[in-house]
Fold:
Amino acid sequence: MTVKIRFFARFRELLGTDILVEKKSGTMLATLVKDIALEKKEGYDAIFDANGNFREFVIVMRNGKRLEPAETATVMVADGDEIAVFPPVAGG
Amino acid sequence: MLSERELERYKRQILLFGEEGQEQLKRAHIFVAGAGGLGSPVSLYLAVAGIGAITLVDNDVVELTNLNRQILHYDRDIGRKKTVSAEEKLREINPDITVKVIDTTIDETDVDRLVGRADGIVDAMDNYPTRYLLNETAVRKKIPFFHGAVQGLYGQATTIIPGVTPCLACIFPTAPPKEVFPVVGVTPGLIGMVQATEVLKYLLHDGRLLTNRLFIWDGLESHAEEIAVERNPACPVCGEISPVKPPARKKK
Structure:
């Protein structure tokens, strides 16, 4: 099955975007994103904390629907899913 | 009623909004929280559009490092209070409106009084703690809240209608880490314009607001994106409040 990962803003700078991933079914969302992010340490560290969990402020969406960071460890991705990972910005 | 002078000043936009629309803008009171990167373009454009009353709050002094983006303040203003500098520019650019500036820090002791009975709150802050405070105030008073934030060439914006749309705490339950953020003036310029456009549309009951959607601007790619956002029924800020009637749409 194929899943598309879209990174935004700083995450895109570090990891690229619109990444198509071939995975066997049953893969958890967090695992999928982690595998891609691991290709670049800086990118991984920006998104995940020392325990390998999504940093609290990171917004994760699956097909336009927001997921709680904790849910991402138990939600399985499906063929055709689009996963968006977005860092909110703070300046003014 | 609009004066002869106002009819002339706003002639080109009265073609868009009608005299009735222009009068609605004149009757409006908008609270702008911050006179920095976002607050500068927002307040300038709300002023020239003829928003009748603008309250602008900031506690800072103009520094040289502000001037790459905070276009309300000029080189000669370095060392002056931002409120003094802002008031001067806004009065000069449009003497036909009322500008009130308040030199203070927005905190839980004064936010209620500062916001007063404004028709809208513009988020032009540079930190999430104050944003959350303004969001709570907006929800409690049922005042629309126009969110914007920037970093580098990235920006985001959304329009919050308490009781109807997700509030800031629904969308961002956890603040991103505090840091000295890189920024170039064009980004708050662009996001500020999204916010100011939303204020006008809201006041004029026209168009489709940026509600239930987070607008994301990527200036490096020149790409805009939006993601759908939803209310969190368990939101500690707005989860309990009942829906309010959305603004009536303008009859065509």
